[in-house]
Amino acid sequence: MKILVAWANNTAANLGVRVLAQGSRDLLSQVWPGAEFEYMNYGARPDAVTWTPKGLIRERVTGRRGMMDWFSQFDLMWDTRSGDSFTDIYGMDRHRTMSLIHEFVHEAEVPVGMAPQTIGPFSRREARLLARRNLSRSSLVFARDAASARAAAALGRPVELTVTDMVFGLEQPEKSDPHDVVLNVSGLLWHENSHVDHEAYRHGVHSIIQQLISDGRSITLLPHVLDSPNVDNDVPVAKHLVGHYDGALDLVVPQDLDDARGLIASAQVVIGARMHACLNALSTGVPAVAMAYSRKFAPLMNALGWEHVVPIADGDETARAVLASVRREGLGEHAREVQARARDLMDRTIPLLGGLTS
Q1: Is the pTM of this model over 0.90?
Q2: Fewer beta carbons under 10 A from the terminal one: N or C of the chain?
Q3: What are the protein's UniProt keywords (predicted)?
């Protein structure tokens, strides 16, 4: 059994992408023990495949790279779409590229399963057409929240099952030394971006830090997208904040996903704007307060009964809402209940997966 895991890999700077890679392997190995896995993602591109829509269409016509032969060697493609990229909010080139890969794998007569993920939103007509075609040609489709399931149904392809995020299928990490508040600050949102007012986000982060210090809490900064040439990484802003607060904050830059999960599991509470920083916490039974910049946060967490999702808006208002959640009693017990509920949801995928290659 040879499985292509698309849009995730174990070396990505974004630890959320590594979650998808490891979670996919752990889940699918329960169905196909001993399966061989290969990963395809930005930064881990096979020679036979190009990353531009025009290049993909050209290769489909000319076959110079041998793309279709390369696809046909697999028994299954597990399409993760990076967890949240089955949408046009990150631009049409990304959506076109991922959609064309899906189309051509299907044409290579390889079954495609859509991993649990966010589906939508699709604001453009072309985006909806591509999504409808991909969904209709998928052998199995999982959503990780009810809003995504509704989006798939609206495109004419109801999902087989609404479950939750792949992170809840990971093995439990070994805890590091104890930490109080672990704070993840997003490099994506710290700079001008298409999601939120970055000045409001910065103001909110500073307000949260200042109030936590006043409350006597200790804060450890945790980058969840590691350092890389890409501006979308969390390390520079974390280092900036350490300098700005003159040593009042600790900083731990994890070496890998296991390292990050061990630190998160040791915390009393996690505050994060990277969704998988928060999901890594809940998957280890640690409460997390999410600072949400898109539609992907609330439906997923609400489905698990976790209400501590704060939309990033006015900086002061965001900070007040985050701190109100942090100070709430019984957060730890509630987080452990969510962890158990989510693991049960992931187990429900197992009986369906075997039918992908039968």
Answers
A1: no
A2: C
A3: Transferase
Q: What is the DSSP letter of 170?
A: S
Q: Whose CA is closest to 167, among 262, 261, 253?
A: 261
Check if the beta carbon of residue 138 is closer than 8 Å to that of residue 101. Answer: no
d(CA 124, CA 133): 15
Section 278-306 average pLDDT: 93
**Sign of the alpha-carbon torsion through 67, 75, 161, 341:** negative
pLDDT of residue 295: 80
Over range 192-221, report the average pLDDT: 96
Give the number of C-alpha atoms closer than 13 A to the C-alpha of residue 243, restricted to the C-beta side. Answer: 6
Q: Are strands 179-184 and 267-272 parallel, antiparallel or unpaired?
A: parallel
Q: Which helix (H) or strand (E) holds 250?
A: strand 250-251
CA dist., res. 257 & res. 233, Å (int): 15
Residues 6 or more apart whose CB falls under 8 angstroms from that of 150 comprise none
The Cα 230–Cα 284 span in angstroms is: 29
**Distance between CA atoms of residues 89 and 282, nearest Å:** 26
| pLDDT tens digits along 3-50 | 999 999 999 999 999 999 999 999 999 999 999 999 999 989 999 999
List 288's β-bridge partners, or say none.
270
CA–CA distance, 167 with 308 (Å, rounded to integer): 18
Q: Please say whether the beta carbons of 166 and 83 come within 8 A.
A: yes
- Is the model more confident about 314 or about 125? 125
Enter the DSSP assignment of 81.
Answer: G
Could you tell me where the DSSP H helices lie in the chain? 15-31, 53-62, 67-72, 92-107, 125-136, 146-154, 187-190, 198-214, 235-244, 257-265, 275-283, 297-303, 315-326, 331-347, 350-353
Using alpha carbons, select from 26, 38, 37, 56 the residue that is nearest to residue 116: 26
Cβ neighbours for 91, distance < 8 A, ≥ 6 positions apart: none
Residue 357: its pLDDT value, please? Answer: 72
Residue 120's pLDDT is: 95
Domains and CATH numbers, the chain: 2-162 (3.40.50), 179-342 (3.40.50.2000)
